[in-house]
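[agent] plan:
  1. take the single chain provided in the ticket
  2. run structure prediction with default settings
  3. attach structure tokens to the ticket
  4. add a short note for the reviewer (M.T.)
[agent] executing step 1
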Amino acid sequence: MSFSVGIVGLPNVGKSTLFKALTKKQVDIADYPFTTIKPNVGVVAVPDERLEKIAQIIKPQKITPTIIEFVDIAGLVKGAHKGEGLGNQFLAQIRNCDAIIEVVKSFGDDINPEEDIKTIQQELEMKDLESKEKENLLAKKPVIYVYNIKD
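[agent] step 2 finished; step 3 output follows
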């Protein structure tokens, strides 16, 4: 079984850093917008003690763990649904994911996590309004919020 999770957020909030921590893959990480243009993709097997115990009993020829595919998507900016900051391309990448991890910067001067979450939600909703098909809506995907704090 495979599950795809898109890592999204505004530029420079720590998306690629989280991706690297989850997947152990080397990726470009820099403090400027759009360090990531082409999405980074990493596949991680989900550890499951139950699977190991069952395998010890039934001794299958092959053990296939559940996997999660993490997709590190470039930062979204206000107006992404209109193509700002290559937004259409990035929003299209989210449509292929089963769920979203949204990284929210929660440290430094002039931050407003609630406003950042609202910006991303509005961009997803605006892109959904443009869609002729009403299945697989971006704004209806399950979301996990990860607050990036200074420590």
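[agent] step 4 note for reviewer: The chain has one domain: 2-148.
[agent] ticket updated
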